[in-house]
Amino acid sequence: MLFRSCAGRVSIGAWRSRKYVLWSVCLMALIFLLYVQYTPNSMIGLVNDPQQHRTLHSFRRQRQDSYKKPPKVSFIDNDYIRHNNEREENVNELPNKLVPPQHLPGDADVARNSLMRDGFAVDKSQNVEQKYDVPQIVEKSNVARFPEPVVPNKIDRQEDIYAGQAAAEWNGGSYRYNGFGEPVYNHGNRPNYIPKQRVIHLDLKGAPPLVSMYKTLIPWLSQYGATAILMEYEDMFPWEGSLSPLAAKNHYSKEDVREFLSLCKENNLEVIPLVQTFGHLEYALKRPSYSHLREVPEMPQAICPSKNESLMLVKSMIDQMMKLHKGLVRYLHIGCDEVYQLGECEKCRAKVREALFLEHVSKVAKYVRETYKVIPIIWHDMLTHVSEYLMKDYHIGELVEPMVWVYAEDVYRFVQPSTWSKFAEVFPTAWTASAFKGAFGEQSTVPNVQRHLDNNQNWLDVMASESTKFSAGFRGLVLTGWQRHDHFAVLCELIPSALPSLAINLITVSHGYFNETVLPKLYEALKCMQTPKYQTGLNLDSDPFLWDKFSWCFFPGSLIFKSTARLDATKKEVQAYIDKVTLQRAWITDYNRRHNYSSPMRIDEDLEELPSRIHAISLLIRTVKEALSEWYDEWTVGEWIEQHIWPLLDKMETLRKEAESMKLVKTWAARPLPLLPQLEAYGVREPKNKNDARRETPEGRT
């Protein structure tokens, strides 16, 4: 009985406390899961391979845990910030073993110290000055794979094998999406890709530099990785004869062009002239003598391909361009992008738009090839929705080489793998085009370096992935630098204010990556002072225009670059002042100025800051004029100041005049003031009997 009684009590107690037991078990399970999640791998029997990331623009190291859970990125540096577009897979996996110095990128000492910080065993016995050849780039796909590290004394016997392995092992990166449906750009795991041709685009449809400045710019471009210039003359070319109306009033002379070409030749830069032959012909079709060739009479953008005179105009332009470049060029870019007005006139409507386009392009391309024995290049966008079968019918793949342009960060969003496959069926090779300026704002004064760097790094990933689809790989990459978005647009970023962006992106595509090992070359290119400020990386999140970072650098045109920072600050100050006195305060509002009705005392209070603001703007105009005059003629200097600074001064002067006009009033009318006449269209009007102080209400008279 005693045993039964005890057993019964224990059973009842256990039954009553069962919920506490269950809670305890759940709590222990949760603690165990947290332990597995956050305990270092070395403590639970898992080993992490230290990984060096070579493409971070801010060089923060990252590591991925290797156990079978969704990868969690952990940063082990607090100095820098990860590249925005890099996802979980964007790292280089290097084995945790001996790493010989010849596999360290860039400066050996910097890279060795970096590897030692990250836990690599580095062979210090090797002489870092000893030269080891990096595996050669495969000519077809232009990729070089960094092989598994080997013992240094074996490197000479195996280096010839590595390039072959690169071609055999790398078949192009797969096109992947992360969990958010965003494409994954694999900066780290791809082979290092360096475009064979690294072309700088100079757009002369606006702000053409003085010819004397090319003596500074061209050697600089050659020194830091450029191999060619894509020269878009437009109306700056010395057109003559019947084409003379096409030339701008300040166009280059023939001697200027010859001097430029000679300078490029001396610096081993190939020149690719660009002449528009279909769309973007505003500079020709705006003139009375050629306005009848427009596809749409009201719009001077595109020529009508069905008129014989259109082809005659194009051939004449090509003839004059090639005559001045005779024997100096291998390629001629014939434009053909953004032909928005196509198939709209009576003759053209009888044909399919795609056929119209291909027929005109094939005629122009045949003329270029047969007459001048050079290769025509066209922009790709008008071919995007044309089938490979139709392109083959017109033999486009035998006539032109496409140049695929995407200036946004997400390249694959605009040119998908299926498009690359289609182009590879038609063309043996292709060009690509990124941007270093002129892509992210029609009125920008300085480029957003972060966005352009993302664009160029992602292009390297895409080229590494897609090059093997083409039988001859890619020709090269063009860094475009648009000066106007079209002939009628205002100016965007000037070349001098974009030199930091150009330096960063040119060095990136010339090395295949951008990290701390190339910083010394960047600071050298921009003539930065040797101070601690220029011994650290870039913070493109907080300083996307690099105004702060390069404030003490003295590259050509640095005064213009610094002036854009001052202009930005002045714009904000002026707008803040105008908002304060016209929107926040109550005496110089739009209402006050329309009715010329305000308090003179309050007006004086609000105008106290105005003289200092006007003086600051006037001083900025004089400073900018002096800085711009080193690079540009009076036309460009005046246009830039009128576009960016004059509106500030005009706003302030208008505000001052209207405020002074209100102060002249000595007596004021009784309220209510007259209503705005334009409000009558909306049913708002003054009472019919103005002398009656009473007003009508829905309830009746009051």
From TrEMBL:
Q: Which reaction does it catalyse?
A: Hydrolysis of terminal non-reducing N-acetyl-D-hexosamine residues in N-acetyl-beta-D-hexosaminides
Q: What is its EC number?
A: 3.2.1.52
Superkingdom of this protein's organism: Eukaryota
Record's keyword terms, sorted: Hydrolase, Membrane, Transmembrane, Transmembrane helix
Alphabetical GO biological process terms: carbohydrate metabolic process
Query: Where exactly are the transmembrane stretches of this chain?
Result: 20-38
- Residue ranges occupied by any Glycoside hydrolase family 20 catalytic domain in the UniProt entry: 221-393
Which family is this sequence assigned to? Belongs to the glycosyl hydrolase 20 family.
State the name under which the record lists this protein: beta-N-acetylhexosaminidase
Biological source species: Armadillidium nasatum
